[in-house]
Design brief:
alpha+beta, 482 residues, Butyryl-CoA Dehydrogenase, subunit A, domain 2, Butyryl-CoA Dehydrogenase, subunit A, domain 3
Length: 482
């Protein structure tokens, strides 16, 4: 089948799905003033496929590149370039309607093979069939992984023993033709404007957690599925004061499963608790590579606006400003180098989709840790160069009224020769990136999205060659023998 147009994508969302926003039922995900903005942002993926300027990077043999399993290191780099380009077109906000879903599909394709070998299940074929369905219909995908967790000191089955069995999504009934699940997932990105939802375990499980080891896929209009959309960043914005968040939006939901039936053909894990942890990890290593790829336009924007405001403020030659600019450039370029190195160090794994190249988990997590632990310091440097007008500048309307505009232009000019409106536009860009609700959103994502900072550290420790390093130290220590 041909690739879908943006209009076909929009129409596919009018399927009777159940979405609530601020307590009200949303009847149309495109016409809603907030969710519609997110829906139009997501259409960037379909627009790229139609645009001759981007078609080569977005499309492979008539299908979306996202659905093409990476066979080589160059395939991974091409995928990274596609993610980076789409995010740049999205004003530093990732599109995510195929990135995260195919990360999940690739993880499922690897782990399902191992489950089948150990338990004689048929999951690998089901994954292949679902992958074909998504590819041929050019679908938009969301992924629900993070359970609400309840008392975080307790495991899934321990929650049940304390009277909260639904703190983790779990199977409540097994039927000849499928399973019934109940529970909720948090932080589900792009779910309001996706076609299918892939559900994965959030953590490793014990034998007592058998009913919580579950993975499957369902259409977004499945009976019993309710999406409660977060209103964060949903206030009305003009594009002068909010050049990014006035044009681009992503929705997250609390995703509730009230006795949802999943047919067998859509079930990819149903009680094989030994593979809950490996599946969660395999997905997240693909997804962290996606993450560091889509962070590149964001850190590039911090560098760019800092350079521009240093010039507009007339401080580009000040020693402390040059020091901050050099730090910001090194931060951005270090992330880019690590992202590319994760592809160069990639290794091949067998999967239900054939051999697949997976990013090097050590380098991916070093890249993600580099981004996450330095992001707030990068924001502080941009804010320092920009100045307090980030949060005290006049509004758009003040430039539209002649009497007020004269004062603004007279008193808020910067370096000689710089137009005041241009300076205010640059300040508003820096404000949107660092001090608006969008800026706060990005700061929280830096800490929590795609896994916590502590999870990244644990993965780095797990994947580093400890034995070889100790042997190297022992060999060097031999030099000290008399």
């Amino acid at each position: 089948m041909p690739l879908r147009t943006s209009e076909q994508y929009f129409q596919s969302l009018r399927d009777g799905r159940r979405i609530f926003y601020r307590g009200e039922l949303v009847t149309d995900a495109l016409e809603h003033p907030v969710i519609g903005l997110a829906t139009r942002h997501a259409a960037i993926d379909y627009e790229m496929a139609e645009d001759p300027q981007y078609r080569d990077i977005a499309v492979v043999d008539g299908t979306s590149r996202y659905y093409v399993p990476p066979r080589t290191r160059e395939d991974l780099l091409s995928r990274s370039r596609l993610i980076e380009t789409a995010t740049r077109l999205g004003g530093t906000l990732v599109v995510l309607i195929k990135e995260i879903g195919t990360d999940a599909l690739f993880g499922l394709s690897i782990v399902s093979e191992h489950v089948d070998k150990q338990f004689g299940t048929d999951y690998a074929r089901r994954v292949r069939d679902f992958h074909r369905h998504c590819t041929e219909n050019d679908l938009a995908l969301a992924v629900a992984q993070t359970d609400v967790k309840g008392d975080r000191a307790l495991g899934p089955s321990e929650q049940a023993a304390r009277g909260n069995p639904d703190a983790y999504l779990h199977i409540v009934e097994r039927r000849p033709d499928g399973i019934v699940v109940r529970g909720a997932k948090a932080h589900t990105s792009v779910s309001t404007n996706a076609n299918e939802l892939i559900v994965l375990p959030t953590r490793a499980m014990a034998e007592a957690d058998t009913d919580y080891a579950v993975a499957f896929a369902i259409p977004m209009n499945t009976p019993g599925l309710t999406l409660i959309a977060s209103p964060h960043g949903g206030s009305e914005k003009n594009t002068f004061e909010h050049p990014i968040s006035g044009r681009h939006k992503m929705m997250e939901t609390l995703t509730v499963f009230e006795d949802v039936f999943v047919p067998n053909e859509r079930v990819f894990l149903a009680g094989e608790w030994q593979f809950a942890g490996p599946l969660a990890l395999t997905f997240v290593e693909f997804h962290r590579f996606t993450a560091v790829s889509y962070k590149l336009p964001l850190v590039d924007a911090l560098v760019a606006v800092a350079l521009l405001l240093a010039e507009y403020n007339g401080v580009e030659r000040a020693g402390h400003v040059r020091d901050k600019l050099a730090w910001l450039i090194a931060y951005a370029e270090g992330l880019r180098a690590l992202t590319h190195m994760a592809a160069h160090r990639a290794v091949t794994h067998g999967s239900a989709l054939g051999d697949i190249m997976t990013p090097d988990p050590l380098t991916v997590n070093v890249a993600k840790l580099h981004f996450a632990t330095n992001y707030h310091a990068a924001v502080a440097r941009v804010q320092d160069i920009a100045g307090g007008l980030l949060v005290t500048a006049p509004g758009k309307e003040d430039l539209d009224v002649a009497e007020v505009s004269d004062y603004v232009r007279r008193y808020l000019g910067g370096k000689t020769g710089v137009d005041t409106r241009d300076r205010l536009r640059a300040l508003n860009l820096a404000s949107d990136l660092t001090s608006s609700d969008f800026g706060g959103y990005q700061e929280v994502l830096a800490v929590h999205a795609e896994g916590s900072i502590e999870a990244e550290k644990l993965t780095i420790l797990r994947n580093y060659g400890h034995a070889a390093a100790k042997d190297y130290a022992k060999a060097l220590a031999e030099y000290g023998r008399g």
